[in-house]
Write a structure and sequence with these properties.
By secondary structure, the protein is of the alpha/beta class. Helices cover about 40% and strands about 20% of the residues.
């Protein structure tokens, strides 16, 4: 349920009770469709997939399926927006095991055709095609599909699932409520501020606001932890509801999802995850602290890392092995 799970994230992140939605009959004679299905150029060159990555896949009997998850920082459909969230969701097709990799949005990478820049700018420059190509080329990955949400679609997805349970720290509350107020100004719907710390059930907008906090703790690195926490909470909701969630997925999730995946693929992935016996999701954030440092270039702050070193760390996490990148 990759799509779902991922989607929900995010990462950007809205209160239709799941029970009410489940009770609704879904007419599958008219297949549900995503809010926006994007046709990518799927050639290896256009996706930035190297011969080495292809050879690696061929050696595996059941290679992982890697899907990019973006949450775009935009308030209207007209905005291009940088990708506030950049994740790679890896699914083991045999066991259903999920690994979740956050890639720091400020990572200094080579954006094909544009030059060195922050990773999150690839989406605003060239949309999902360029964003995927940037991930594949810089980290020698084999991503072929993606999912994307903005603040409001992500919130509606969380609401459709009945909210998420999140452990909230007292020092996070003022910042969460501030972001919540900002969101309410755009859609002109009064916010519901939070006052209590501890385990709290967050609605969609509250979850989105929570996932945006970075002024508390370890800056943007801790923000990626919050984003993964929301996504895992969504996954827990999906597992809890089981197959009953499919009508919700069809009527409340897909209409808020932008993706390159067709409906059948989304439901197939969802089913494999729901049937998975794995209870936990492995997660990591890259670049690792020990392999990166802040750096100012032309008075702009970037997260600098040796791309080969970080690629090796990502590969070790996703595939269980490092790699030696050869010249193309």
């Amino acid at each position: 349920m990759i799509a779902l799970t991922i989607l929900a994230i995010c990462f950007g992140f809205f209160q239709i009770q799941a029970q009410d939605s489940i009770a609704r009959k879904v007419d599958f004679s008219a297949p549900p469709v995503a809010k926006k299905t994007v046709m990518l150029d799927r050639s290896n060159a256009a996706l930035g997939i190297s011969e080495q990555a292809i050879a690696r896949q061929k050696k595996l009997q059941n290679p992982q399926v890697n899907i990019a998850l973006f949450a775009v920082d935009r308030r209207t459909e007209a905005e291009a927006g940088n990708s506030d969230v950049v994740m790679v969701i890896s699914i083991d097709q045999r066991t259903g095991k999920i690994k979740m990799s956050s890639i720091m949005r400020d990572t200094y990478v080579n954006i094909p055709g544009s030059g060195m820049n922050k990773l999150n700018s690839a989406f605003s420059i060239g949309g999902p095609q360029l964003a995927i190509k940037t991930l594949n080329q810089n980290f020698d990955l084999d991503i072929r599909d993606y999912m994307n949400v903005d603040f409001y679609s992500a919130a509606r997805i969380v609401d459709a699932l009945g909210g998420v349970q999140i452990p909230l720290k007292a020092e996070e509350i003022p910042y969460l409520n501030n972001y919540l107020h900002e969101l309410s100004l755009y859609d002109k719907i009064p916010e519901v501020p939070l006052a209590q710390s501890g385990l709290q059930k967050l609605n969609g907008k509250q979850a989105v606001a929570y996932s945006r906090i970075r002024a508390v703790g370890h800056g943007d690195a801790e923000r990626t932890e919050r984003q993964r926490r929301v996504l895992i909470a969504i996954f827990d909701q999906l597992k809890l509801k089981g197959k009953e969630i499919f009508p919700v997925f069809a009527t409340e999730v897909l209409p808020n999802l932008e993706t390159s995946m067709n409906t059948m693929s989304l439901f197939t992935v969802a089913g494999s995850i729901l049937n998975s016996k794995n209870k936990t999701i492995e997660q990591a954030r890259f670049p690792l602290d020990k392999e990166s440092s802040g750096k100012r270039i032309n008075n702009i702050w970037y997260l600098s890392t040796d791309l080969k070193t970080t690629s090796n760390s990502i590969h070790k996490f996703i595939y269980g092995t490092t790699f030696v990148k050869t010249k193309s």
